[in-house]
Design a protein that fits this description.
The complex is a heterodimer of chains A (about 220) and B (about 230). By secondary structure, chain A is mainly α. Chain A has a single domain, classed as MetI-like fold. Chain A is built from 9 helices and no strands. Chain A has helices at about 1-10, 10-45, 50-60, 65-80, 85-110, 115-125, 130-160, 170-180, 185-215. In chain A, α2 (about 10-45) packs across α5 and α8 (about 170-180) packs antiparallel against α9. The termini of chain A are far apart. Chain B has about 230 residues and is mainly α. Chain B has a single domain (about 15-230), classed as Orthogonal Bundle (MetI-like fold). Chain B has helices at about 15-50, 55-65, 70-85, 90-95, 100-125, 130-140, 145-175, 185-195, 200-230. Chain B is flat, with a radius of gyration of 22 Å. The chains are: A mainly alpha (about 220), B mainly alpha (about 230). The interface of A and B includes residues 63, 67, 158 and 172 of A.
Chain lengths: ~220, ~230
């Protein structure tokens, strides 16, 4: 009972943390997907230099642990910009660049899943490369890969808990602050697990439903 | 941008020693967690395909629970919560006598988390096989166990060896989360070197290069294994 009261009392603080987690995930997903479209197109380009450079980017970030990437950007971003910019922005840049590498593989597969005849037909009707991408290829590719992009978004939301290592006040960090102040580690961490589970399970159910619709 | 470069710092004591020991702990956590993940994950994955609905349901629940809670939260549950909610003598034992408490907790947490991911691969591998295979088995008079042992598993495991090795790389990267409960693995050591020496760039570069080298090494070994295991389709 005391634990429930504690959770209710600290709700505004905890919701702020949860809001930060969701915001970080949403912005990083949006930025990551935009970057990934460009990276995927480079990766598929016939220019070997461009496709090689994109491959190096993707493989580089995919072989690094996210925590190390976060450490890197907490050190690099303020140094490159020349003044402290606040840890939220450092984290946002780290997550965007890191997730872009993971999204690239999904989007590349999505583009490849569109039949090649579509591109030829678009070219035959006189569309430029850009027009055929924008009106023919990408809309179909995105329809095919929406479930995977959303699933990656759920993983990204779970990954935002890693900003704990740099004490940015996301949901897990606020939970930890309350837990330590009040000496209630057990109930607060169980509560955090339940919240994450409820959100991610519900979201993955929705994605599962979309996937079934897409197959039909 | 002003920065004092000094790469020689990485070869000085105690920093070199820290990097080596960090790499050692990263590998030790990853390997042990991967063994747990493959063992538990295979069992759960097989259980999810069994005709017994209760067993399959429990196994599916396992996967959903472990997949939908962030790994970091799971580590905290194992480390801070578990010793408090088990019967008291066991809790005391965990807190006082568990050998290498941080390491053991990290291995268990990471292992059971990754098991959920592996169970998904194993289930998909088994379910991708034509139903005719098991039906033919039953028609020959084989029991359920025999059908799995002699027909389904040998075929399915060739399909899922590549994902197993990919999962090793995931475990390897995720092992960095062990630093949150005090395991001084590679990422933690590079952070520590950066704090002590103020040479963050060199410290993080060293860790990055080591991670990439090991990833490349594992990928190369993977490719050889995959070539040796032709999939009969």
């Amino acid at each position: 009972m005391k634990d429930l009261e504690l959770i209710v009392d600290s709700m505004p603080f905890l919701l702020q943390g949860l809001g930060l987690s969701l915001l970080l995930a949403a912005l990083a997903a949006a930025g990551g997907i935009m970057m990934a479209v460009v990276l995927a197109l480079l990766r598929l380009s016939s220019n070997r230099f461009l496709s090689g450079a994109a491959a190096v980017y993707v493989n580089f970030f995919r072989s690094m642990p996210l925590i190390l990437v976060i450490f890197w950007f907490f050190f690099l971003v303020p140094m490159v910009i020349g003044r402290p910019v606040g840890s939220f922005y450092s984290a946002l840049i780290a997550f965007t660049l890191f997730e872009a590498a993971h999204y690239t593989e999904i989007i590349r597969a999505g583009i490849l899943s569109v039949s090649r005849g579509q591109g030829w037909a678009a070219a035959a009707t006189g569309l430029t490369y850009g027009q055929s991408l924008r009106h023919v290829i990408l809309p179909q590719a995105f329809r095919n890969m929406t479930p995977l992009l959303l699933t990656q978004g759920i993983i990204l939301f779970q990954d935002t808990s890693l900003v704990f290592v740099v004490s940015l006040s996301d949901f897990l960090t606020t939970v930890t602050i309350v837990a330590r102040n009040e000496g209630r580690l057990v109930s607060m961490y169980v509560f955090a697990a339940l919240v994450y589970f409820a959100l991610c399970f519900a979201a993955s159910r929705v994605v599962g439903g979309l996937q079934k619709k897409a197959i039909r | 941008m002003h920065y004092n470069w000094d790469w020689s710092i990485l070869l000085q004591e105690p920093y070199l020693q820290w990097l080596i020991s960090g790499t050692g702990w990263t590998i030790a956590v990853s390997l042990a967690a991967w063994v747990i993940a493959v063992t538990v994950g295979s069992l759960i994955g097989i259980a999810r395909t069994l005709p017994n609905r209760m067993v399959a349901g429990i196994a599916t629940a396992y996967t959903e629970i472990f997949r939908n809670i962030p790994l970091l939260v799971q580590l905290f549950l194992w480390y801070f919560v578990l010793p408090e909610i088990v019967p008291e003598p066991l809790g005391h034992w965990i807190k006082r006598d568990l050998p290498l408490p941080e390491y053991t907790t990290a291995v268990i947490g990471l292992g059971f988390y990754t098991a959920a991911r592996i169970s998904e691969q194993v289930r998909a591998g088994i379910q991708s096989l034509s139903r005719g295979l098991s039906m033919a088995g039953y028609a020959q008079g084989l029991t359920l166990t025999q059908v799995y042992r002699h027909i389904l598993l040998p075929v399915a495991f060739r399909l899922i060896v590549p994902p197993f090795t990919t999962e090793f790389l995931t475990v390897f990267k995720n092992s960095s989360l062990a630093l949150t409960i005090g395991v001084l693995e590679l990422t933690a050591q590079s952070g520590q070197i950066s704090e002590y020496s103020f040479h963050s760039f060199e410290a993080y570069t060293a860790a990055t290069v080591i991670y990439i080298l090991i990833t490349m090494g594992v990928t190369a070994v993977m490719t050889v294994i995959e070539r040796r295991l032709p999939v009969a389709t």
